[in-house]
Amino acid sequence: MTLMKRAIGSALALSMATMATAERGSDGDVKIIYWQAPSTMNPYLSGGTKDVDASALVIEPLGRYDENGAIVPWLVDEIPTVANGGVSADLTSITWKLKSGLKWSDGSAVTSNDVKFSADYCMSPDGGCAQLSRFGGVSSVDIIDDLTVKITFEKPTPFPYGPFVGAETPVLQAAQFANCMGAAAPTCTDANFNPVGTGGFVVTEFRPNDVITLKANEQYRDPAKPAFATMTFKGGGDAAGAGRAVMETGEFDYAWNLQLAPDVIAKMQEGGKGVPIAGFSTLVERLMINLTDPSSELGNERSTRKHPHPFLSNINVRKALSMAIDRELLREIGYGPAGKLTCNVVPAPAAYASPNNGSCLTQDIAGANALLDKAGFAKGSDGVRSKDGVRLSILYQTSTNAVRQDFQALIKQWWSEIGIETELRNIDASVFFGGDAGSPDTFQKLFADLEMYANNFSGTDPQSYLGRWRCDNIPSPDTQWQGENMPRFCDPAYDALHDKLQGTGDLEERAKISIALNDMLMQAYAIIPLVHRGRLSAHANSLGGVNLNVWDSEMWNTADWYRIK
Amino acid sequence: MTDTTVQTKALSRNQWWDVWDQFKTHKGAVVGGGFLLFITLAVLFGPYLWTLDPQRLDIRAKDMRPIYTLLWDSGAKVSWGHPFGTDNLGRDTMAKLMAGGQVSMAVGWVAMLLSIVMGTAIGVVAGYFKRFDGLLMRFTDLFLALPLLPLLLVIMMLFRDSLRKSFGPEMGIFILIVIGIGITSWMQTARIVRGDVLALKERDFILAARSIGTSPRHMISRHLLPNVMSPIMVSATLGLANAIITESALSFLGLGFPSDFPTWGKLLFDATDRMELYPERVIWPGICISFTVLSVNYIGDGLRDALDPRIRGR
Question: Domain B26-50+84-307, CATH 1.10.3720.10 — does that match?
Fold first, then answer.
């Protein structure tokens, strides 16, 4: 109820602010720049933030997270809870009731069939859906009536807001995607590029990895919105160019994810055309260690569980890698006030942040050296350690970005001090995060020994996020390289504990299990966290209504954006 | 006594002395040659005098300004230990410039030699043997139509891993870039050489040589090649400049060499984010690239004049 009040309150406040121009399409064009170009408008086919954000302009979920991390109703009138009867008392089902009168952008009505279809679409066995972990434990989705749909879980699910809450799992139009089930999903380019949606905007032209042009959705539920008649969503370039385009030259209205060194941002802000905005969610810059052998001789079995990594499968090596890193220096050089120290892959909310891994905060080169000595890796004449003919030589890949390259250089130096040789590789961000199964350079394929990037989870519940590191989420040729378990971490005990999390209702107990799961990952050193990052974006001074949401897509409320006159 | 020496010298005078005399009159070419010599020596032998490791990070000494900043800003953070300043991770700019120059120049020279050898061979064969002419020239047209950057991207994707395995990361990429630039820049040379060979073939001295039964091999090596030397040398200098620029462009795009491996283009690329705060980080590599290319172009200009016997002596 308080949620509703707040939503109404802010809607009122907004409509007051835009009273003078409260008319659809009265504010002309808004220009957004994403320095990673979206390659699809279908988030079920790509886990990349850029694709999820672009799709959030057009297609919407039933409920989503607001800027405080609270769940708010979106295509429904209220969020089902146990209290209002929407969630069954035994926690095995959730019943969503769509708003009445909702229209797709082609004029047809949104029905519960669309919701059921979207779930089936993602859960289709041979589809390789990128958001499958959000549908974990769903046994069936049933239509009650035209507007009501019931999602049933295999067992009591205390947090039933995995499917259809947050920008990653929007509702697709059944009529449009009917022929795109399963393995056919990636072939439906027209549907994937021009989805029919309920959001504020409709795609007029989609150029993959380049520009998306959109116009206001004539069928949008609020007749006064969106204020902008058209939108240009430009992709590509780099973070510095994007920041300059908004804050210095004013060519664009909104720039996303300005991963730039603090001194660079400060200098740009002096341009006076725009302001940076920051928020902390759960974004962690991390190293993903490849526990499998990426050697190119293995052909199709490269980076799959069939071949363990020659030396990174040894936990002492992974631990030494982590010990040699000075995280405080990384934070200071790379993010300044937009970064915090962490030793966890789940750094927030506070109740879910593990207190057990603090030792990583101090760099310990001597300790790392001692550990490697004990593990039997002896330094050779060139200062590089080896054991049984296996040299500790690492290929370290990440996306092309000045801050990441600085991190690479620093970390390479520390690792050289413990006798580990590092080769650096940087890949264009659009390719690296592109998820194209045809490219060898994607972060899913991980044809390297380790890689660095940042990721987070939307919302406040880490269940589906922690589900990423289950055995069945490992990207491999069998899954068209979809899946988010980049380290290829596979531990039956982890899976069992995660199953337990899915069946636990008590919040305190859930936090305890989440912390245990996080600790398993951290203490296995499969993932090495580096910095807890704030999300930093920038908007033009003349762009109103921007509400940086770090828990959901940044594009969550573009229908409310307007031009300040 | 003096007279006779001069006399003997003049008599045994090699034709290259004439070329040199003519070359000397082109001021731009002489200055360019001097600069090229200087920068080549600097990048080759500089690292022995200036022994800082270009990849060594020293965070305490980060963001140093060049020493000359003191002229207008007495409060600037400078040190004689880093006369050209340091970057944001404390790597010495002067060491990086020299290390970067070695790579850029090496790529330039090797790629240029490769493209000249290919271009000359194809041009001479196409010009001299009529039956190969059509085929080779269509082949040349085909290569002219290939866009360089996308081609290099594809080559890099296909061969990067295997080359890296056989030659190591830096050498592998070096070979890849050199071959990439080499095979996409020989076409102009081939066309020019073919044109010259076609014209030469009709000249009387060739006819005379042919009438005494000179074999095609000797015809090419004795009579044709020496006479097309001048356009080859000119296009060689242009090719060198072109290769340095292409390598810089590739590095600037963030492709090519690993990120901690300096080349001039890469230094430029890394510096763009802080261009306003630390302009020297863009200016120095920029000056190195453009002055080297400019001097090479002037040398080419001077060589063209010097190698042309009709201009020589005027």
Answer: yes
